[in-house]
TrEMBL record:
It comes from the Bacteria. Its EC number is 2.7.13.3. This is Sensor histidine kinase MtrB. It is an enzyme of class 2 (transferase). Keywords: ATP-binding, Cell membrane, Kinase, Membrane, Nucleotide-binding, Phosphoprotein, Transferase, Transmembrane, Transmembrane helix, Two-component regulatory system.
Amino acid sequence: MSTSPPPPSPSTAARRLNAGGELWRAVSGRVARVVGRVHQTWRRSLQVRVVTITLVASSLLVGGFAFLIADKITTILLDNARSDVRQRVTSGASYAAKQVSFYGQPQEAQLQETIDGTVNYLAGGDPQQTSGVVVAITADGYPDDIQTRTAPSANVRLLISPELRAAIADGKVASQIRTGRLTGDTTKYLVYGSPVPTRFGQIELYYLVPLTRQDVTAADARATVVATGVALVILLGLLAALVTRLVVNPVRVAARTAQRLSAGLLDQRMVVNGEDDLALLAASFNQMATNLQRQILRLEEMSRLQRRFTSDVSHELRTPLTTVRMAADLIFAERDEFDPAVARSAELLQAELDRFEELLTDLLEISRFDAGFAMLDSEPTDLVPVVHRVVDRLAGLAERVGVPIELDLPGTPVIAEVDPRRVERVLRNLVGNAVEHGEARPVLITLGIDDTAVAITVRDHGVGLKVGEEKLVFNRFWRADPSRARQTGGTGLGLSISLEDARLHGGWLEAWGAPGQGAQFRLTLPARAGDRLTTSPLRLVPADAALPFGGPRDGGPLAIGPGSGGALAIGLASSPDGQRAEVRS
């Protein structure tokens, strides 16, 4: 009594299922990696694409050509075999008809011997001939009187189809190709039949010719054509690789040279070999690089001279400014003893000297930024007192223009590794601009912090920024409304210096604005000096901003502003006019 094995336990089945799943994931992951590398190579290598396309196209063309050639050779061989066998059948049928023409009845005693001799003669005189051709005479109309005779001896009934017998019975010469075994291995035969007329009726003559030689010849021809085609495809692939390499290599050299040029290595040049088109390309590229180097050096020299001029002028103006300042202070102190018109002139002189001195200070600071000499003195700083100092300093101006300043600060210290002098200067510029453009509406200062960054936003509800002005707000000496009177007597360099200060910290200075909705500036700094920013604790678009089409507050069209290292940074813009700029350092 046999017993069936117990079914696997649920835990065993689960382990098998998990193992199968892991195997499938490993295989699919490897396939995905291979496909990814192939796709990456296809996208990056022009030579691979050209060679692959050449191989595929040439394979299709050579394959089609080889098929046509092989088919043509097979057809010719078969037609030749048909023609030869047809002639043999025709002459054989005439000979057999003469041999049996003396007999008037199928029952005559000598008829069978005559048929046997005729078959042997038509087969070549040797009943055991080894050429493979089988000759047969049948008499389907007299099966009892005349027996089928073949030379060599074989059962040909299996290779003569009823359709062929019917065609011969109708007095036609017909043929067909059949596969079977007669005298040895299974072989393909060309079976040809012809009627043989007699005095008592009709008998049939069949030639069964093996097509082994034709098949071997056709196979050899196909192998030769295929081998030639493969060799031709490989040769075309190698030729395409060589030609592509001759073209791609100079292009790759040009690309590497262009990368070195863009990296600042202005003395890099391509090697010029020969006088062909590629040599002309290399020569033109070198000429372009030479012109660019000359132009860049000239611009660098002009920029250096401009910075030197600005710095020298600023320093040289210090001495006469000090003298004028001393005289102006003396006149300003004695203004009560002058006529009202002279006293007013003394006040105006004092105010303009203050603005001139501030402008010189800003110019010196800008020249240090341009020369790359600005240094960052970072230290752990609580930003809450920094914000309070800025507000206290601008409280008189805010009270004079009727703009209240509101604070939204954390109740705990906000510590970050920053340069407190530079951060205070940035906030002073931002808050001063917000107060000046506040239109007697509150200015809100918000301070936020997360694990990696601190951010300060300054929000006003004044006239805002028009379309396109968000790209200009950090430019030097730019003013949104040139006819607008300044309340703070600014120099026009405050926001430019603020952007450089933020960039020096590795932070962002961003602006958003919309007509009639005011503006908001956001300063984001890394909490630890040297860290890279990825997000900001505070949003740039204020929560009370009206959005177009009800879209998300951080979505919208793109706006472009100055970026790090002189590059451009792209941020999202969203406002009723699609106006939001992110200026990132």
